[in-house]
Amino acid sequence: MDPKSQRVKLNDGHFIPVLGFGTYAPPEVAKRDALEFTPFAIEIGFRHIDCAHAYQNEEEVGQAIRSKIADGTVKREDIFCTSKLWLTSLRPELVRPALEKSLKNLQLDYVDLYIMHYPLALKPGEELYPKDENGKLIFDSVDFCRTWEALEKCKDAGLTKSIGVSNFNHKQLEKILNKPGLKYKPVCNQVECHPYLNQSKLLDFCKAHEIVLVAYAALGSQRVKEWVNPNHPVLLEDPVLSAIAQKHKKTAALVALHYQIQRGVVVLAKGNNKKWIKENIQVFDFELTPEDMKAIDGLNRNIRYYDLHLCVDHPEFPFSEEY
């Protein structure tokens, strides 16, 4: 099955490919990885590229996309490119300049999707993680409903086709959905989601409001020290996943990715070598049985690899809620 044609309709009428290529990498390799792996991903059929200001490699991602447009592999309209508004730019007046900076880095006229990276505001400035003299993050106080209004204006200005959020719990989503004068609903909520954290309640909530759930860390995580709890079990070594993979003559990674697509979730896959990237795109040529799906559902244990412990004291910390 052709990955290019596998798309889901968003609530604003645009379409998002169900399989995306994630460009996050640890800082020491982020730029190199983007230049090496993003063009390769496009060559083999990925059409949805997920990036962010915070990944610090937008210039390289943009270069990769433009090189594949230049050599005739794709046209701009074939590529679905997502970027994200960082926490230091949540004040309404900073939203458009932040998006314009991302567009300049990517050297694109528009992104297909621009999302709020977290509902947590940090002190504005050049530093990604502004800290005080004790090494504590410096929080900012911003009503993210005002941030949302600034995002709506960016959509109206044609700088982004669609707007959404990331790492919001259902109460925070409700706040936007119930906002007086809401012009556009969020098209998506991008969250950590995998068989150990299957987000079934949040998924049901999002489906009821025509919001697409987008899964990151769908294969567990790359276990980046600052962010990830190293004591958590490794998802892809799970015996249930391995048994289902063996049955279908696939890898555990492909089973974990297909599980998401089959339940109506858009899934991001990140490979830091070409073999894995090539393998990840083979997610469409098999089907999981209802028994397989039920067995994978049963693996949920609410394990969050990216628990954002640095921001646990923030008044808008999203992960205290059940979903």
UniProtKB/TrEMBL annotation:
One of its GO terms (molecular function) is oxidoreductase activity. The keyword Oxidoreductase applies. SUPFAM superfamilies: NAD(P)-linked oxidoreductase (SSF51430). Keywords: NADP, Oxidoreductase. Residues 19-300 form the NADP-dependent oxidoreductase domain. The record marks 84 as: Lowers pKa of active site Tyr. Pfam families: Aldo_ket_red. Substrate binds at residue 117. The active site is at residue 55. Signal peptide: none annotated. Belongs to the aldo/keto reductase family. This is NADP-dependent oxidoreductase domain-containing protein. It comes from Capra hircus. The gene is LOC102176622.
